[in-house]
Amino acid sequence: MKEFEHLMSVWQGQPAADKLSVDDVLKQVKKGIRGITNKLYWVIVAMIALIVCSFIVTLFFAFRSPATTIGILIILVTMITYLSLVIRHYHILNKHDLTLNPTEYLNSLKEYQRNRSKVIGWFYYIFMLMISTGLGLYFVEVLEDAPLYFKLITYGSITTWFLFITFYVKPRMFKNEEEKLNLMIDRLIRLQEQFD
User: Fold this and answer.
1) CB neighbours (10 Å) of residue 76?
2) Which spans are transmembrane here (predicted)?
3) Does residue 11 have a pLDDT over 70?
4) Residue 191 domain flag
């Protein structure tokens, strides 16, 4: 009996769940979303600049090898596909106002998170493979007259860079973004539960 009373006193002594301040949560979520959309905006700007440069190289430089042109076209198609994906994600995050319909906003955030994690999972590896293939074909002509050691250094550097980006930077970058999204979604869910 004494154990039951002790258990009851411990149970009753538990602090009540903290009530979230609506203003604080909304400010934190808006700040987090603004950070993600700003990052996506600059990715869009950079991709447009790279696509324009690639078009200029394709149109105004005369290449002897069709492999070089095919390599640049592979890179262009890959970048345009990635750009369309980033623009889509940017619009998903910007299309709803958090203060007008919080439930719809929460659902759109969950959809964005599911979509992004699913697409980024498989698309990123295809993206890196296609960019690597395009660069490999591009460098066939560009490095045609270069000494063997320079070719090895160039291809080795590109391979090392892509492996580093794919297996070191990408997981950390997307994990960080995933944690931020999880935190925002969790706060919105807790806030929604307060009013239910």
Assistant:
1) 17
2) 40-63, 69-87, 119-140, 152-169
3) no
4) yes
Whole-structure pTM value: 0.76
Q: What is the dihedral of CA 180, 184, 186, 190, to 10 degrees?
A: 160
C-alpha to C-alpha distances, 114 to 2, 120, 183, nearest whole angstrom: 49, 10, 15
Tell whether the model's pLDDT for residue 74 goes beyond 90: yes
Instruction: Give the Cα separation of 136 and 99 in Å (integer).
Output: 49
Range of the domain at 146: 20-195
* Helix segments in the chain, DSSP class H: 2-12, 22-60, 66-94, 102-142, 148-164, 170-195
Question: Total structural domains in the chain?
Answer: 1
Q: Would residue 66 count as lying in a domain?
A: yes
